[in-house]
């Protein structure tokens, strides 16, 4: 429940809340699926001798493919989150026209997600120029991927990169990109990725980790370890996450959060950081 807004925006039977809440249910289902898959020991990381003395190769073995149900549940989450925004945009348009839209206006309504201010402004051309008034545009603008960067620039702060560079790390932009892949092309690719790798020693370590082949597929040499610590074995502790390879932040060398945590964070972003400012702005006279 979001306070200090018109009660209609908090109606749990509204399409935007119904879709957002359904996405939350899918997030919990995804978490259970990922936990069950992880418990089945679907991968292993084992040391093998190499031609170099005191150097071991740690080979990744993938014993089971990622269940397709995980991919489709990710798609369900993306679809419901994006649909919650589409429903919200439809209601914003409807209220701006006295509660009635023509069939053409209904088809035109959509929630903009743009990487730059120029692309956002260009969105409101043609039929959308009359569909959304200044209040609606203000409501949408303040949740855009570029909005905080735009405020910084207006205050005289120099950005360390372009709007596009920053957008690929913003939840709405990433959600929209993945949703388009799932909707139009294929299932999002989910794969194992190392999160934490470490070993113990009785003092300063003599071991050094060296880069592997970088392929992260079945049979890959994930890394090499050169040197030994007296009294310690060859075991290396490791934790892997299931990551979404198509996530723009992942391909940019960034986010490697576990897919269940990632989807949960996007759900929270919609509910806690997108809905409230839109509801508040649309509740003003």
Structure, described:
By secondary structure, the chain is an alpha+beta fold. It has one domain (7-282). The chain is 47% helix and 15% strand. It contains eleven helices and six strands. It has helices at 15-39, 68-95, 103-108, 117-123, 127-131, 134-141, 147-154, 163-167, 171-184, 248-251, 259-282, and strands at 43-49, 55-62, 190-198, 208-211, 221-226, 237-244. The strands form two sheets. It has a four-stranded antiparallel sheet, with no helix packed on it. A two-stranded antiparallel ribbon has the order 3-6. It is elongated and about 80 Å long. The mean pLDDT is 91.
> What is the average of the pLDDT values?
91
Tell me the domain tally: 1
- Pick out the low-confidence regions: none
Q: Major β-sheet, in short?
A: 4 strands, antiparallel
Give the N-terminus to C-terminus distance in angstroms. 21 Å
The tally of beta strands, per DSSP, is 6
- Overall shape: it is elongated
How many helices in DSSP terms? 11
Structural class: alpha+beta
Task: Give the amount of beta strand, in percent.
Answer: 5-15%
Helix content: 40-55%
Kindly provide the radius of gyration, computed on alpha-carbon positions and rounded to a whole number of angstroms.
24 Å
Order of helices and strands: HEEHHHHHHHHEEEEHH
- Widest sheet: strand order? 1-2-5-4
Helices, strands, pairings?
Elements: H1 15-39, E1 43-49, E2 55-62, H2 68-95, H3 103-108, H4 117-123, H5 127-131, H6 134-141, H7 147-154, H8 163-167, H9 171-184, E3 190-198, E4 208-211, E5 221-226, E6 237-244, H10 248-251, H11 259-282
Helix pairs in contact: 1-2, 1-11, 2-9, 2-11, 6-11
